[in-house]
Amino acid sequence: MSQNQSNTPGRPTGRQFFFNPGPTHIPDRVLGAMHRPTIDFMAPEFKQVLERVHERTKRVLKTEQHLLYYGTNGHGAWEGSLANVFSPGDKLLMLESGHFSINWAKMAGELGLEVELLPADWRRGVATGALEERLRQDTGLTIKGIMVVHNETATGLVHPIADIRAEMDAAGHPALLLVDTISSLASFDFRFDEWRVDLAVGSSQKGLMMITGLAFVAISTRAMAASEQAQITRSFVDWRQMMTVAPQRFPGTTPVHLFYGLEEALGMLEAEGLEAVFDRHARLAGAVRAAVRHWGGDAASGVRIVDGELSGPVAAVELLCANPSRVSDTVTAVLTPTGFDANELRRIALERYNLSLGQGLGPLAGKVFRIGHLGDLNEPMVLGALATIELAMRESGMKHHAGGTEAAVNALSGN
Ligand code: PLP
C-alpha cells in the first residue's frame, strides 16, 4: 500500500487519521530510515547505531544509569522489569489508575509476586498522601516495590512521579520505584535519575514515533544490584545474560531495522528539542480538552469510577479525568452520556470518515472513547480530528454542544 492510500477498506481517498493513543503516526523519515538492505547485526557500523540509540534514549529518559532493549512490546518489558529484581512471594504495591495499572499488577501476580492495590477512583488517581500513609504502616518493610503507571492510557490520568518519590522519602521507605512510561516518554517530562526511579519501562510505538517491536527498561544501579539476588525463573529477559552478550546486549538476532528507525525518530525529537516537543503536546492536549469541555457544556457530574464501575449516570460528554492537575497531555479519555454506545461514534468516525479513535478499555468499553494526541502531530491534524469527531457526534445522535472545534481553535490561538 502506498503511503497516500487509506488503510480502511472502502475508503480509498486520503490518509487515515490515526488518533488512537498508540501506536501513533510514523513519520515518513522514520519509515524511510528502515527501508534499507539487511546488514550483519555484528557489523561495526551497526554497533555504532546501537550505541547511539542507547545514549540518545538515555537522554530522553534523563538517566546516566543502565538501559536494556528488548525486541518486544510494552508487555514484554513489563515482564523484563519484574522478573529481574524480585523473588516469588515478594510484595509490591500498585497505585491504581485504570486498565494498564490493573494489568501490570496482574502480570506481577502471575509471576508469583504478591500485589496490593493502593485503591483509587479512576477519575482522580491515588490521593496525595495516601502512599506515604500506607508506607508508614509498613513498619516491617515488607513492601519491596512501588509500581505506578506514569500516564494511564486507559483513563487519561497522570500520576506525578516526583511527588510519589517525595512521599516514599517522607515515609523513609526503601522500596524500589517502578514506573511505566509507555505513553508518557518523549511526550511530557520524565526524569529517571532526578526522581530516583529504579525501573522505567518504555516502548517504541507511542511518543517515540516508531513501529511496535522495541521496548526497553531503564535500570538504576540499585535495581541492577537487586537482580543478582532475584529468584524469579527467567531466561530471555534475564539481564545477567544480556549484560554479557557483547556488543549488542541483546539475546539473539538484533532487529537492525528497528534500531535504524528509532535512531531517526530520536534524531527528530532532538532536532525539535525535547522541551519544544513537550510544549507542543501540552498545547495540542489543551485544544482537545477545550473541545471536550465545550461539547459537554462544562459538565462536572461528580460520577466516580471504582473498580471500573461508574457510580451513577453520565448526563453529558465529559473528560474522564476529573483532576485538572492530573490530566494527560498524550491521551484524552471521554465519558459519553449514559445510554449511548461510544463505539457507535467510533464506528461512524472510522467507516465514514477514516478517523480511528481509541476504545474504552476493560469495564469502560462502550462508555468511553479516547483521543490520542501524541507523537508526530500538529495543529491541523488535531483540528481535523476534532472537527470529524464533532461530525460523527452529530450523525450518531450523541448529545453535544456544537462548536467544540472552535473552542479548540480559541485554545490554540495565541498559544
Ligand atoms: N502500559 C501502558 C501505559 C500502555 O498504554 C500500554 C499500551 O497501550 C501498555 C502498557 C502495553 O504495551 P504494549 O501494548 O506495547 O504491550
State the shape.
globular
Relative helix content = 25-40%
What proportion strand?
Answer: 15-25%
Radius of gyration over alpha carbons?
Answer: 21 Å
Total helices: the number is: 13
Q: How widely separated are the two ends?
A: 37 Å
Helices and strands, in order, run as EHHEHEHEHEEEHEEEHHHHEEEEHEEHH
| Class from helix and strand fractions | alpha/beta
Number of β-strand runs:
16
Average pLDDT works out at: 95
Strand arrangement, major sheet: 2-10-9-8-5-3-4
Largest sheet: 7 strands, mixed
Unreliable residue runs: 1-5
Bound molecules: pyridoxal-5'-phosphate
How would you describe this protein?
It is a single chain. A hairpin with an 8-residue loop joins strand 15 (355-359) and strand 16. Strands 2-10-9-8-5-3-4 form a 7-stranded mixed beta sheet, with helices on both faces. It has a 5-stranded mixed beta sheet with strand order 1-15-16-14-13. It contains 13 helices and 16 strands. Mean pLDDT is 95; it is low at 1-5. The chain has 415 residues and is α/β, with parallel strands linked by helices. Helix content is 38%, strand content 16%. Helix 2 (44-61) crosses helix 9, helix 9 (256-272) crosses helix 10 and helix 12 (379-396) runs antiparallel to helix 13. It has helices at 28-34, 44-61, 74-85, 99-110, 130-137, 161-171, 221-226, 239-242, 256-272, 274-295, 342-353, 379-396, 404-412; strands spanning 17-19, 66-70, 91-95, 114-118, 143-149, 151-152, 157-158, 176-180, 199-203, 215-219, 305-306, 309-310, 318-319, 331-335, 355-359, 368-372. The structure holds pyridoxal-5'-phosphate (PLP). Pyridoxal-5'-phosphate binds next to helix 3.
